[in-house]
Amino acid sequence: MNNNMNHKELIHSDFQIKEVEAVVRRDAFTTIHVHVPPYETNILRNLFGRENVTVFERPSKTTITPEQEYDRLCAKYGHEVVAKVFGEDDGDRLMEIVEGLMKEGQLPAQKKALEGTLEQELSETRGAKKR
Questions:
Q1: How many Å apart are CA 127 and CA 131, to the nearest integer?
Q2: pTM for the complete prediction?
Q3: Would you state the pLDDT for residue 115?
Q4: In 3-state terms, what secondary structure has residue 60?
Q5: pLDDT tier at 38 (50, 70, 90 boundaries)?
């Protein structure tokens, strides 16, 4: 069995990333507290206004499946809102953000392996676009 992790194996599994607590003031009488990945606060700010969303760091982590995050956010908030915040790229920008958060939570050896596979994937993608 090959010990090298390729990009597909790496992305198609669950990862632990930090989460934040967002306090959202929906109206004068309604305030909600949600625990979400940090990038999800951008959507909340877009929906409710920057001044109505306060973010606090949390020591806990949440489990995500990176390749499903774009679909999860679209199901929760709608494709139009997610595309407005992260762009019309079918989740590519969101995946870059998620991969950055995944790197933060890795041990040094895991981080090096992750960076190697991501660099290889990027170089293959760039080569394909030039053709």
A1: 7
A2: 0.69
A3: 56
A4: strand
A5: very high
- 79-111 tens-digit pLDDT: 999 999 998 888 888 988 888 888 776 544 444
Using CA atoms in the order 128, 119, 15, 57, what is the torsion angle rounded to 10 degrees?
Answer: -110
Return the bridge partners of 33, or none: 23
pLDDT at 54: 96
Closest listed residue to residue 97, CA positions, set 23, 41, 48: 41
Rounded Cα distance, 22 and 36, in Å? 7
Read off the amino acid at residue 76.
Answer: K
Structure tokens at 86: 């992260």
**C-alpha to C-alpha distance for 30 and 46, rounded to whole angstroms:** 18
